Amino acid sequence: MNVVTYEPEYTRPDLPVPLSPTRGLPKLVRRYLLGLHGPSFASAYRITVAWAAAGCAVAVVSLLLPSPWQQAVVACSALLGLYVVVRALALVALERRQHVFESEWMAAQSEVLRGHAFDVLRFTVQDLSGSTGVRRVYDLTRPADVRDLRHRQDHERASRQFSRATVEFTYVAGGGTLVVADVRRELPEVIFLEG
Predict the structure, then answer these.
(1) Into how many domains does the chain fold?
(2) Distances (CA, A) of 118 to 88, 111, 169, 173, 188
(3) pTM listed for this prediction
(4) What is the DSSP-derived secondary structure letter of residue 134?
(5) Does 7 have pLDDT greater than 70?
């Protein structure tokens, strides 16, 4: 699969993941049959359910109509049902393709991002298991904090109880503007590289 990353001068950590590149029939299906302009598959599934409900409503209405109109309305209901089935199958296929593309895109974009400097301002971990949501800030320049953080990460991977990590950092945006941003992930998802 061809993975195109953002240009280095536009690279920043909060870039959205684009739709997987397609050509020909899959591109036409995605754009015109599904109306997808971004990787918003949850919304597309909700729309599919709405189309299915509309097809059912048309079928129910056909029962109330006299004979000459009933056949035409039943045909419309059947066409809506066929559209829903084709739409659902296309969504599943394109969503699978998108998941493969996203993992490859993230790996490629991560390589581009590794070539840039990001100053970490704060690394915070919030416990999600309790009702209090206790937060702890780790200083990544202190070996003891890093050791505690790595131990906590290993423990969470083993226990399957996750905390949310928030990394606040700076980067230079277009025009030389210094920007502060943050990224949130579950702690076991974070990959630490020794510097």
Answers:
(1) 2
(2) 42, 14, 6, 11, 21
(3) 0.57
(4) -
(5) no
